[in-house]
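Bug #2210: token dump truncated for Ribonuclease D?
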Amino acid sequence: MMSCGLPDTPLIDSQQAFERFLDSLEGIDLLAIDVEADSLFHFRPKICLVQLATPENIALIDPLRVPDISPLKAVVEDPNILKIFHGADYDIRSLSRDFGFNVHPIFDTELASRFLGIRHTGLDAVLASRFGIEVDKRFQKKDWSKRPLSDDMIHYAAQDVRFLIPLYRVLQAELQEKGRIDWVKEECERLSDVRYKAEDESPRFLRVKGAGKLKPRSLSVLEELLKLRDREAQRLDRPPFKVFDNQTLLSIATALPQTLEELQALHALSPKQFARFGEAVVAIVREQVQKPEKELLHFPKNGSSINDPNCNVRLALLKKMRALTAEELDMDPGQLCNNALLGRIASQSSLSLQTLAQMEEMKGWQLAVLGSRILDTLSQAPGVRIER
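Reproduced locally. Full output below:
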């Protein structure tokens, strides 16, 4: 089992201690980062702890106690310091949302694990497979906004960054050996560009898996139920899923109960939810049932020629090619190329390496690995012209 020689973890909860720690970062070229937030407990989530590790030191910064952590911006945006994450997307968006940090450059060890064909890519699983380390995950879903933090929580938070730099070095070497380091660098370059975006005015149902299968009237009911959920979640300062989960709302929107008796017979709501929201839910359903067809919501089409039988044939061929290539490379097929990109390729009437390269979703490494295979696969497919 690997041990880590980093010193005991200081919890930095004052401006003076924070600035002293920043001074200690001068001259570093690697910085591991993780954050703990309270998204499971509040309507508007916030970062409650920022964990940082260098090859020599480790520290936990408490942004709920340190008045101003904006000086950290220069560090996380320094192009000469590589920031190491495990599952970077959420952390980068959260740091952008709460502090205006645009973290760059990065290396994501979770992403690297997927490109190495590792099936279980959670940090605990990867550390166990590479170092024989067991990580205690008991505190993963704790409310990190509560103070004081227990010693066990502080230890847990430190573990999430303690081994990231050694893990980065091991995975980087494995990627070099497989010739895939440039693939991961390109993916990380794109990933570092993600930013938090406030929820726009687009329909809420677009963020609910399964909504695309609903008919317009049910979709309209679902949208109003989601608005009801958000209002109540904001009033209670709770995450929306703790008011109603998505499956509950999908069940109601599908069944369209117009009376309390019909709603109760559906068994979608708990007794407490039924007592609190039954009348409001039934009122929403009745209102949408009475709406003219032209006023109902419709799920947006994805623009692909999904009803074109030739497109469907081409898509099936591409999926088969992807599966064979993924098996050859020992990678997950979805990591090799997602269905959205395959669908766009299948919808084209003319294809060449140049047209593939011009697709925004197509990455350079994908074009190198899959470009010729795509053209070969579709060379005898109906309804598409291949240009060499």
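Output looks complete on our side. Residues 11-191 form a domain with the Nucleotidyltransferase; domain 5 fold (CATH 3.30.420.10). Marking as cannot-reproduce; reopen if the truncation happens again.
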